[in-house]
Amino acid sequence: xxxxxxxxxxxxxxxxxxxxxxxxxxxxxxxxxxxxxxxxxxxxxxxxxxxxxxxxxxxxxxxxxxxxxxxxxxxxxxxxxxxxxxxxxxxxxxxxxxxxxxxxxxxxxxxxxxxxxxxxxxxxxxxxxxxxxxxxxxxxxxxxxxxxxxxxxxxxxxxxxxxxxxxxxxxxxxxxxxxxxxxxxxxxxxxxxxxxxxxxxxxxxxxxxxxxxxxxxxxxxxxxxxxxxxxxxxxxxxxxxxxxxxxxxxxxxxxxxxxxxxxxxxxxxxxxx
Length: 273
Known about the structure:
The structure is a single chain. This protein is an alpha/beta fold. The strands form three sheets. An eight-stranded mixed sheet has the order 2-3-11-8-12-6-5-4. A two-stranded antiparallel sheet has the order 1-7. It contains seven helices and twelve strands. It has helices at 39-49, 62-76, 80-83, 132-160, 170-174, 249-257, 262-265, and strands at 14-15, 31-33, 52-56, 93-98, 105-114, 181-186, 200-201, 213-216, 225-227, 233-235, 243-247, 269-272. The longest helix has 29 residues, at 132-160. Helix 2 packs across helix 4. The chain is globular.
């Protein structure tokens, strides 16, 4: 979308001694039509065997997706000193470079919001050409549709795992005190990448998600990879019309550990764009 002001090279994380990209063709990533009656069993199987899958016929209107993407493009195309007026991300707002509390450094910028946030969208009024009301409406429409889809997936997973009541996960997402988050990531082009002599530049470093699930939507830019059980990484082809679901550590605890106390898993759902 846009190149930031040229940063110092030391801001980047470099992968060293990583295992090679697998020759495994990634079409084997499960694709699940959640409108079909057998989808709950397929969801559970995908969670157990892959920990990652693609959702089609998800019911999120393309109008909501396109409207939010348009506002995101406007925002990230603004000068850095203007975008920073919508930050810092403490935890909500605009941030760049630093990804997490573990000191992860990457070539990424983002907007982080709570799904029930009272975030001050007036911050966006100071950014050239942006209407804070347009951003608020675009975010609310998108997040509402995503939460509806997430609840449907979570209830099917609970049924498939024979966890009752079936809203054991979805009610956490809909709770007024939910700590679910919505994040828009932008990975600018890196003109210095040639300086690394073939080593891999990290936009958002290798990690697991602590929450129950993460819902990811991509545009047509490639770059997403997942790690297989054998330690090899495979590329996930982008698909702007579908959503990818990543199983978080909390749900993995349910699947492999025989269940966790609901206070332990808290209310973690992450929605990405």
